[in-house]
Amino acid sequence: MKVKKYICALLAAALVFCGASPSFAADDGVISLLSAMGVIVPSEDGSFDSGASVTRAEFARMIVMASPYRDSVPAASSVFKDVPATNAYAPYIKVAVSNGLMSGYSDGSFKPSGVLPLEQAANVALKLLGYTAADFRGGFPEAQMSAFRSNGLSAGVSGGVGQSVTKGDAARIIYNLLNTTVKGGGQKYAETIGLKLSASGDVDYAASLSDSMRGPFTVTSVSSLISEQGLSSEGLTVYKNGRVAPTSDIKRYDIVYLNPSKTVVWAYDKKITGIYERATPSQNDPSVITVSGKEYEPESAAAFSALSSGGNLRLGSAVTLLMGRDGRVADAVSATVAGVSVVIYVTGTGSKTYTNANGREYVSGYIAGVTADGSLLEYPVKETWYKTGDVIKVGFEGNEMTTAKLSGGSVSGAVDAELLTIGTLSLSEDVRILDTYEGAYASVSVQRLDGVTIFADEVLCHEAAGGKITALILNDATGDCGTYGIITSAKKTGSDMSVSGEYSYLTGGAARSLSTQGSAFGVTAGPAKFVFADERLISMRNLRGLTGKVSRFDGAELTVSGTVGHWDISDKAEIYTKLSNSSNYAHATLDDATEAFDSGQSLDFYYDDTPDGGGQIRVIIIREQ
């Protein structure tokens, strides 16, 4: 039995860090350590939305968790008018500001949802290395950016002054920071916050991770956890799914980890409930297990024991996997014992071959879907009437699975990310939100929905606990499920049933074409929204062009003269240069667009909906001079 493998695997876990450079992702334990420290919060499959812009609030959390102040974050506190104590980031913002790492604005605000320019992130990193304003010659930010580069903090980070920092760039800056010598020499920054170095002088991520966490442990009750692990309820810092939380937020069947001094608890409540389909290479040695169509690796001896032939969980039975912090299985129990039901948005249906508890193969229909937190699951079903786009509740009675189709509820209203409300209803601090459309889906944050009015027919399903909404599945409330680009030509021929269409279009800078028979899209050449299902283009719709003079454009948002408010630029906005005296386009970058705007070139901006309807600027065209 390879129990040792699962006990030691924590030390060498290498998670998938989407968008990271190969050298960054390849270092054993780097991502695991940043996760353990609370610097990054990976999703269940270990990925990290590195391409999204990091907000000022998110960066405050990241940098505090990589600072000497990481174990002194208060449970709830605020010092800014636009950051109430109920804001999940309020404690980190207070620590960052009170220790001089970041600052607010003269009007008493912090602007937690604002994007972070690279020069501000650079300045924070330099402060942690011991630099002050007296160390720089010249004005801000040129002198700071020079030191940022000369100290190696910019390695793997793109962009320059004024460029919005992505989550991936923020993590890289912190990664670089750990390996940088502090002002005056003698120590690397990692040593100043208690991390270990290897014999070669590099940060020993495996050893530091081992020292940073003890566990995983399965919670049977909070009182048992405290007594069994020798914890003190006084002065105990709790992070629930990466956020500061009261001890009372730790629930039965949560998975927890402890720091060496047992003063910090990291708790996670991710659970996967489904049918235990397969163990590879066998149930005697379950190195990989398959539950509801997806493979998982056991993280611990407890998980290995529960899922092996010596445990009480059998192939073909309904199980609940208790997931650890890095997407592996920390423990497993019977689905009946856990009492967990699952709500999924159906992304596909079909039939396939399964293996029952006796090892015999059988053919069954299935539904594949995604939960509000982005977990992909698959369940064998006898029913054949479910279709893509349905919302299904899956439950278990013994080993028998039950399914029921759900419909929308009474949730509606404007979303306020600071107050964590939608209309008159409260949202949980870690509310999971999934936007969907025609089988496509996208995880969205509360900040993404800030100011957006959600209508009742845009809510497919919601879940609530303790008087707060904990999960929302929406129907095209943001437009983020679409793909955006440019239709370069559109021709419709024939009439009635003999109609056909010929289309050429650009998405992601790649040229594509489509021919239709018996139908046609009512579109013209120009920027458009495309919707794909199973990699098949099922709809396209022209975008609207922004009217009025753009008075400000910084790459993250823009303002139109004479109007109140601003337009957000989509994180996945498509940028093209319209070649002069030609109908051709060249793929460009956001940096190209901001530089063109600053130099006085003409830019055209296209959107899918108004800001209060979830719309953003989706396509930007630079007109070549």
Structure report:
The chain has 6 domains: 3-54 and 115-208, no CATH class; 213-268, no CATH class; 271-406, no CATH class; 413-475, no CATH class; 483-542, no CATH class; 545-623, no CATH class. Strand 29 (550-553) and strand 30 (557-560) form a beta hairpin. The protein is of the alpha+beta class and 625 residues long. The chain contains 14 helices and 34 strands.
Quick recap of the structure?
The protein is α+β, with helices and mostly antiparallel strands and 625 residues long.
List the helices and strands and how they pair.
Elements: H1 3-8, H2 22-26, H3 30-37, H4 56-65, H5 90-98, H6 118-128, H7 142-150, H8 167-178, H9 189-192, H10 205-212, E1 214-218, H11 222-228, E2 237-240, E3 243-245, E4 255-258, E5 264-268, E6 271-282, E7 285-291, E8 294-296, H12 301-307, E9 318-323, E10 329-334, H13 335-338, E11 342-355, E12 361-370, E13 376-381, E14 391-397, E15 400-406, E16 413-416, E17 421-422, E18 425-437, E19 440-444, E20 453-454, E21 459-465, E22 468-475, E23 483-493, E24 500-507, E25 510-517, E26 526-533, E27 536-542, E28 544-545, E29 550-553, E30 557-560, E31 567-578, E32 585-587, H14 590-598, E33 603-607, E34 617-623
Parallel strand pairs: 2-5, 18-22, 31-34
Antiparallel strand pairs: 1-4, 2-3, 4-5, 6-7, 6-9, 7-8, 9-10, 11-12, 11-14, 12-13, 14-15, 16-17, 16-20, 17-18, 18-19, 21-22, 23-24, 23-26, 24-25, 26-27, 28-33, 29-30, 30-31, 31-32, 33-34
